[in-house]
TrEMBL record:
Domain PDZ: 83-172
InterPro entries: ClpP/crotonase-like_dom_sf, PDZ, PDZ_sf, Peptidase_S41A, Tail-specific_protease
PROSITE patterns the record matches: PDZ (PS50106)
Keywords of the record: Hydrolase, Protease, Serine protease
Family named by the database record: Belongs to the peptidase S41A family.
SUPFAM superfamilies: ClpP/crotonase, PDZ domain-like
Gene3D superfamilies listed in its UniProt record: 2-enoyl-CoA Hydratase, Chain A, domain 1 (3.90.226.10), 2.30.42.10, 3.30.750.44
Protein name: S41 family peptidase
Length: 525
């Protein structure tokens, strides 16, 4: 009896402590909200310059959320278009992207089924004005390009030496989830899944059905550079390859109502077709769920590099004045029981890796993303390549290349000849591109120091004498890194002629991860 009394007293005290803790927390919250409101009022009344309440509050909210994780995001009413695009994959515009390159805004991407392409806009066109608004470095072309469906956009562009005016009717642009689908080898289908918005499963299933009609017996699913999206779409895509009622993913959070297990709700599309899944360091969230689930059930072979490591789930909540907030509410766990979250944001450190097992007993790790079954190292971009990419040198040259060459061979067969690569080298040498290798920078720093001290006069002379050995030569550096640089340049040129589809077709003969996937799946039965 005494033991029962002790237990009852302990439970009562525990409940009381929790109640007081909860009350203290609510009091602190109310107190700080009152202080915050008072600070805003005082600033508004007494600060020397007028303040913008919207901007001040927006900055303070962003600062608060920055203390949590990158995925908890506030969307004021004016940013709801961005939120809608993320969830539905739809926006009203013309289907292009533009970037500031060498003193101008140039079109760097054109959607293959867009109003822009139909109206004649091309990658490489420089935007001079939109509906009479001159485009400068301070402009935001994205805001000028978007507009209500069926409204007219008049773009003044420069293409080479020609100046053109093109009229485009805006429409609802659907961002495709399936970027490419086709038969890349006899019996081997390839699907590139780029997004997980509301139509992802529908597009994926349509692609699978079509490829099977064309003779697909094995599938390579490319999830590289897929940032994720809707959890439900990831579950439904896994369901295509797993039996009905199969557990797919579980979520666990602070509130019990957010804890759930998602199962396959529909009959599968195919449970035996050999599958290879390609991932890389930019495969995240929903993409990692699909790759991880297929790995846990030994349903697919994962090839490439370790994925990003986002094992968190967000829920959208409505706020006053049509604002919204996306809040991280739970972690997700795939069938082996592992969570692949790489960073513990509560302590700002990497999560600890733990070992789990797949259905067939293979060892897999939690924490740090999805580790591929077959690792394929990605080409390492050295400092020169990084600088070329940063300054958009490949884009600039591809734009000029297309102006000089009306056509090129089919994307899959395109290859720069030796003379063509040499022309690129000479163009870079003659351009304003400046490059200093890490070694050169270190040697110059040493030389400066030796010049300051007479004791090192002999060393200074030696460094000056061997300067040709360490002084960067653009031509020499480009030739030394020809393999990687030539591949990047070929991709950019193909993109200008054949858009995104062309890059896919070029990659079928050049992409190391894809070629390894083809090799593996050829031997799978």
């Amino acid at each position: 009896m005494k033991q029962l009394v002790k237990i009852s007293l302990f439970v009562f005290m525990g409940m009381g402590l929790w109640a007081f803790s909860r009350a203290d927390q609510l009091f602190d919250l109310a107190k700080n909200l009152d202080i915050y409101a008072s600070v805003i009022k005082e600033l508004n009344q007494f600060y020397v310059n007028p303040i913008d309440p919207n901007k001040v509050v927006q900055n303070s909210i962003d600062g608060m959320l920055d203390q949590l994780d990158p995925y908890t995001v506030y969307y004021p009413e004016e940013d709801l278009d961005e939120f809608t695009t993320l969830t539905t994959g739809k926006y009203e515009g013309i289907g292009i992207r533009a970037s500031w390159v060498d003193k101008g805004y140039y079109i760097t991407y054109v959607d293959e089924s867009s109003p822009a392409l139909q109206a004649g806009l091309q990658i490489g066109d420089q935007l001079l004005s939109i509906n009479g608004n001159q485009i400068t470095e301070e402009s935001d072309p994205g805001l000028l390009i978007k507009g209500p469906k069926d409204s007219k956009l008049v773009a003044e562009i420069k293409r080479g030496d020609s100046q053109l005016t093109l009229s485009v009717n805006r429409s609802t642009v659907q961002i495709k989830n399936v970027g490419y689908a086709g038969i890349i080898r006899p019996g081997i289908g390839y699907i590139e899944l780029e997004e997980f918005n509301q139509s992802a499963t529908k597009e994926m299933k349509a692609a699978l059905v079509q490829l099977k009609k064309e003779g697909m017996k094995k599938l390579i699913l490319d999830l590289r550079n897929n940032p994720g999206g809707l959890l439900t779409q990831a579950v439904d895509i896994c369901n295509l390859f797993l039996d009905k009622e199969t557990p797919i993913v579980s979520t666990k959070g602070k509130l019990k109502e957010w804890n759930a297990t998602y199962k396959a709700l529909n009959p599968s599309w195919d449970t035996s077709m050999p599958i290879v899944v390609l991932i890389n360091q930019n495969s995240a969230s929903a993409a990692e769920i699909v790759a991880g689930v297929l790995q846990d059930y030994d349903r697919g072979t994962i090839v490439g590099q370790r994925s990003f490591g986002k094992g968190l789930v967000q829920v959208t909540r409505d706020l006053p004045y049509r604002a919204k907030i996306k809040i991280t509410t739970a972690k997700y766990y795939i069938p082996s029981g592992r969570c692949i979250q790489a960073i513990d944001y509560s302590e700002n450190k990497d999560t600890t890796k733990r070992e789990f097992k797949t259905r067939n007993g293979r060892k897999v790790n939690a924490g740090g993303g999805i580790e591929p079954d077959v690792l394929v190292g990605r080409p390492q971009a050295n400092s020169l390549t990084q600088q070329l990419l940063k300054e958009r040198i490949f884009f600039q040259y591809a734009r000029l290349f297309k102006l000089k060459h009306p056509s090129i061979s089919a994307a899959a067969n395109f290859h720069l000849t030796e003379p063509e690569f040499e022309q690129f080298v000479q163009w870079v040498k003659a351009s304003k591109f400046i490059y200093e290798s890490p070694l050169e920078k270190q040697m110059r720093d040493v030389l400066k120091e030796t010049q300051k001290d007479p004791l090192y006069v002999n060393l200074t002379a030696t460094l000056e004498k061997i300067k040709p050995e360490w002084d960067s030569s653009i031509a020499k550096e480009l030739q030394a890194n020809k393999k990687v640089i030539s591949a990047l340049l070929e991709q950019e040129i193909v993109h200008h002629y054949y858009l995104k589809k062309g890059i896919n077709e070029w990659s079928f003969e050049h992409d190391p991860s894809l070629l390894k996937g083809v090799e593996l799946i050829t031997n799978l039965k």
